[in-house]
Design goal:
2 domains, 325 residues, Rossmann fold, six-stranded parallel beta sheet, 14 strands, Dihydrodipicolinate Reductase, domain 2, alpha/beta
């Protein structure tokens, strides 16, 4: 698909969809064409706010619209599989919010459907495409520092308990792990790959949703210590440590503008990055580049990575007794 203007559709019009739509306006060669919600009024309001050409009160209508080139799925985690399979069945490329799904079996079905239909699918881990993260990977994998011994990363915020709210509703994929824990997990897996061993523990609320989760990933020569929470406002820092050197991704590390390299001789080197918009623009550009090249997956956020991440999440859920309906 090589088009001058890529026409996007959005399914699910919550908070993150607003961020995505705002970013879309900053990306050359893209336009927000269609949006869909369960209610016509919500869809109309969103369309007016973000200048979408058409709006629907039915997801299927958007997917069947021949003018939609690619669909961004921003519904709750529990519906990602259903809506992704709907799009893929109609040959619509998909950018699906993270996590791709909250169960491993669902992720497998989604990836299989992408391959079977030869249609693009990518997990929307927007942090992967930010310049500071790319620089961090360059420093680590380019041999600019020594052998990593540990990674520390956290993501937590304080949210009042609401048993009927999305964060605590297990039928919607509630809990800290799936909501924000995927960020530090993504970082560790991107830098170190598949772990040899996994140790995880969580504190569960009365609804069964984890209010906090602590994860240790064990490798041959390194460990990763990860934390997520919906009851604690954590530092939101990420640190990659070699024996005598370290890379510090400044807070909020999942949306950083700078990183600090502390060298063996005590010197420090700061890398500052400025970029337009809210940071979602880079993943949008990646999707459009992949579509223009006829790809069904991104090399930077590959199907294999999403599968590995889901396999690790599955083990963590089992150890922590986090159970989704």
């Amino acid at each position: 698909m090589a088009k001058e203007i890529v026409r996007w559709g959005i399914i699910g019009l919550g908070k993150i969809a607003n961020k995505f739509a705002s970013a879309l306006a900053n990306v050359d060669g893209s336009t927000l064409y269609a949006v869909a919600s369960k209610t016509e009024s919500s869809a109309e309001q969103f369309a007016q706010k973000h200048n979408a050409s058409v709006f629907y009160d039915d997801y299927l209508k958007l997917v069947e619209d021949p003018n939609v080139d690619v669909v961004y799925i921003a519904t709750p985690h529990a519906f990602h599989k259903e809506h992704t399979l709907l799009c893929l069945s109609k040959g619509k490329p998909v950018l699906c919010e993270k996590p791709l799904a909250h169960k491993l079996e669902n992720v497998k079905q989604m990836l299989q459907a992408s391959k079977k239909s030869n249609t693009f699918l990518m997990e929307a881990m927007w942090t992967r495409f930010l310049p500071p993260i790319n620089k961090t990977l360059e420093l680590i994998h380019g041999g600019h520092i020594g052998q990593l011994t540990s990674i520390e990363a956290d993501f937590g915020f304080n949210s009042p308990f609401n048993e009927n709210g999305r964060l605590y509703d297990m039928s919607l994929g509630g809990g800290s792990l799936m909501d924000v824990g995927v960020y530090p997990l993504f970082l560790a897996l991107t830098i170190l790959g598949r772990p040899k061993d996994i140790h995880a523990s969580a504190v569960l609320s009365s609804t069964g949703a984890d209010i906090s989760c602590d994860i240790e990933l064990v490798y041959n020569t390194a460990k990763a210590f990860l934390k997520s929470s919906i009851v604690e406002d954590t530092k939101k820092e990420a640190i990659s440590i070699e024996t005598e050197e370290q890379i510090r991704i400044h807070s909020p590390w999942y949306h950083p503008t700078s990183i600090l390299l502390e060298k063996k001789d005590g010197s420090k080197q700061e890398f500052d990055f400025g970029y337009k918009g809210n940071g979602f623009e880079m993943q949008i550009k990646e999707v459009q580049d992949c579509l223009a090249s006829g790809k069904i997956e991104s090399t930077k956020m590959s199907h294999q990575f999403s599968l590995m991440q889901s396999e690790v999440l599955d083990v963590i859920c089992s150890q922590c007794k986090i159970v989704y309906p």
